[in-house]
Specification:
The complex is a heterodimer of chains A (220) and B (73). Helix content of chain A is 63%, strand content 12%. By secondary structure, chain A is of the alpha+beta class. Chain A has a three-stranded antiparallel sheet. Chain A has a two-stranded antiparallel ribbon with strand order 2-3. In chain A, helix 3 packs antiparallel against helix 4 (190-217). The longest helix of chain A has 42 residues, at 2-43. Chain A is elongated and about 80 Å long. By secondary structure, chain B is mainly alpha-helical. Helices cover 53% and strands 8% of the residues of chain B. Chain B is built from five helices and two strands, in the order E-H-H-H-H-H-E. Chain B has a two-stranded antiparallel sheet with strand order 1-2. Classes of the chains: A alpha+beta (220), B mainly alpha (73). The interface between A and B is small, with 5 and 12 residues.
């Protein structure tokens, strides 16, 4: 029984590593570019009278009138121009945006909360795996850790939304593209909320299992 | 606990020790102690049968119901 449990744990770990690898390989270039620009901006000279900050912002756009033909790209097979519209842009702006400092700080805070919750979640999971391998299954400690994991996932969902909304507010205040509207993007998936509730349900099932086990132990 | 297991009385009448009764019934002395102190959540019929056989008594001789609102007479 423990062997099957451990196999599932390994499969989960492999799936996570594969997912992260794919994600990184697809987005690493953009992430490194933005990191380098941010690093460089932090070292640039500032004006004497006002803080001058370069922002690199990535925003999702929605065409307001639904029509193409604002932009064109060339189809390399036919040589013809294909009407296109923007969906995502990455812009670097050198404008002063003091009004966004508080929002940036907030979004950073929510991001840090998210990361802290994720680390705590992994610690809980590892401790559960180790405890199950020691034969501790339907015990109060496992129930509490499962409940903690569910709450941490809820915290991650909430902080994810908070981050997305604060970043959206920053995008709206900095970017204004003619014919387009900046839309909310990168918000947490509903699956994360469902997973959190699912974990809380499983914690309750373990609670029932623990009570049944205690009753069984006191059945003479 | 509303159901009381009065094993001590029958054990005294039969002059039987806890260890001897536990051995005859097929349970551990610890479980017998749980039974005597009223901490048991449930008793199997097989265990009850073995206790009655060992103490030569009826289930009613060792089981007593107490209404939690009233003291037993």
């Amino acid at each position: 029984m423990k062997r099957k449990f451990n196999i599932y744990c390994i499969l989960m770990l492999v799936a996570m590593v594969v997912g992260l690898t794919i994600d990184f390989s697809l987005n690493a270039g953009r992430a490194v570019k933005m990191f380098n620009e941010g690093w460089q901006a932090a070292g640039e000279d500032t004006a004497s009278d006002a803080a001058y900050t370069n922002y690199t912002i990535a925003a999702d756009l929605m065409k307001l009138d639904g029509q193409y033909a604002d932009h064109h790209v060339i189809d390399s097979k036919t040589g013809k121009a294909i009407p296109t519209q923007l969906a995502t842009i990455i812009v670097k702006t050198g404008q002063e945006h003091k009004d966004t400092y508080a929002l940036f700080a907030l979004s950073t805070l929510f991001s840090l909360i998210n990361i802290a919750a994720l680390i705590a979640l992994w610690v809980c999971l590892i401790r559960i795996v180790l405890a199950v391998n020691r034969g501790i299954v339907f015990e109060l400690v496992i129930e509490q850790r499962l409940r903690t994991m569910g709450i941490l996932l809820l915290v991650m969902y909430a902080s994810g939304w908070a981050f997305a909304l604060s970043y959206y507010a920053i995008e709206k205040s900095i970017i204004n593209v003619a014919g387009y509207e900046v839309i909310l993007s990168d918000y947490p998936a509903l699956m994360q909320l469902l997973s959190a509730l699912g974990l809380l349900m499983i914690a309750q099932i373990f609670s029932i299992g623990r009570q049944l086990k205690e009753e069984q132990a006191l059945t003479i | 606990m509303s159901i009381i297991v009065n094993v001590d009385v029958m054990m005294a009448r039969r002059k039987m020790s806890s260890a001897e009764l536990a051995e005859r019934v097929g349970i551990t002395p610890a479980n017998l102690s749980i039974l005597k102190t009223g901490k048991a959540k449930a008793v199997r019929f097989s265990t009850l049968e073995a206790i009655c056989e060992a103490l030569k008594c009826q289930p009613g001789d060792i089981l007593e119901y107490i209404d939690d609102g009233n003291a037993a007479l």
